[in-house]
């Protein structure tokens, strides 16, 4: 750990986690939290090319704030492993799915919820129409991103896209095992994996899409 790293980290428990290359996305996804997570991802990338572990416990929130985190995860050179503890709902579920393939996990009693974006519109009729069109554009982009990250090996992208378009029509709650069944995660973890852990039992359950 460099001197600059020690100065940046300070002395809190979150700073200690950051020293271990662990980032914690905890709470609603909004601009302030997003800026902290983005800064931590960029900081850790500058420190090392080793994997980053992103723990998620979030009900979701702002699409733009969430996309800032998602895009940064794809932008950095080091792989980002995602782990849901508690819940990953709405925008947080896309962040979960956007982790490094084969390294997207959920603890045994966590919950995942996916749905289409929503938003309130007000003002003149032309403004309402513009906002509605933007929500539809974001919805189509969500279908694309889920399909890109959750497509099965024997499934073409368009089939995966249709699958998620149907699921995202309403709030769709998934258990960790159900999330494996949809390609959103790769593993269910019961205990922290170790070098000697099997893919079931101590290490958890492994999905068919996982390497």
UniProtKB/TrEMBL annotation:
SUPFAM superfamilies: ClpP/crotonase. The active site is at residues 90, 115. It comes from the Eukaryota. GO terms for cellular component: endopeptidase Clp complex. Its EC number is 3.4.21.92. It holds the Pfam family CLP_protease. Keywords: Hydrolase, Protease, Serine protease. InterPro entries: ClpP, ClpP/crotonase-like_dom_sf, ClpP/TepA, ClpP_His_AS, ClpP_Ser_AS. PANTHER family: ATP-DEPENDENT CLP PROTEASE PROTEOLYTIC SUBUNIT (PTHR10381), ATP-DEPENDENT CLP PROTEASE PROTEOLYTIC SUBUNIT, MITOCHONDRIAL (PTHR10381:SF11). This is ATP-dependent Clp protease proteolytic subunit. It comes from Rhodotorula toruloides (Yeast). The lineage of its organism: Eukaryota, Fungi, Dikarya, Basidiomycota, Pucciniomycotina.
